Amino acid sequence: MNAGTAETTEGGVIETSTATFRADVLTASMQRAILVDFWAPWCGPCKQLAPVLERAVASAGDKARLVKMNIDDHPQIAQQLGIQSIPAVIAFQRGQPVDG
After folding, report:
1. 39: closest CA among 52, 27, 30?
2. Is the Cβ–Cβ distance between 70 and 15 less than 8 Å?
3. pLDDT tens digit string along 14-40?
4. Full residue range of the structural domain in which residue 56 is found
5. Catalytic residue at 96?
6. Which position among 46, 53, 71, 78 bears the catalytic label?
7. CATH assignment of the domain containing 33
8. Does the pLDDT value for residue 3 go beyond 60?
């Protein structure tokens, strides 16, 4: 994956990185809700949650998009957001995390 380009997986899920987080999440959330799934390859519950999130976002159509961030590869954003355990999911709208 190019450091400046997000990777889109099958089903339209975006794999983001520290370099692309601003465009993939903050900027994109100005147009639609962005659900960010913070995960790691070794996390069993993350693997169980992923298809549930994919179905939920697919049912929302153009109103929402799922973005995934591997915290092993990109820990900085998770640290900035105060994520201490995974799986963790944060919704963003208008460039900000949604509270609640």
Report:
1. 52
2. yes
3. 999 999 999 999 999 999 999 999 999
4. 7-97
5. no
6. 46
7. 3.40.30.10
8. no
pTM for the structure as a whole? 0.87
Alpha carbon 60 to chain centroid distance? 16
User: Does residue 37 contact residue 91 with C-beta atoms inside 8 Å?
Assistant: no
Other beta carbons less than 10 A from residue 9's beta carbon: 11
- Of the candidates 49, 23, 19, the one whose C-alpha atom is nearest the C-alpha of residue 34 is 23
Does residue 49 sit within a domain?
A: yes
Which residues are paired to 15 by β-bridges? 7, 68
> What pLDDT does residue 8 have?
56
Residue with tokens 């987080």: 21
Instruction: Confirm whether 90 is domain-assigned.
Output: yes
Active-site residue, 56 included: no
- Catalytic residue, chosen from 25, 28, 36, 43, is 43
Within-domain flag for 1: no
Per the domain annotation, does 20 fall within a domain? Answer: yes
Q: How many domains does the chain have?
A: 1
> Cα–Cα distance between 82 and 85 in angstroms, integer?
9
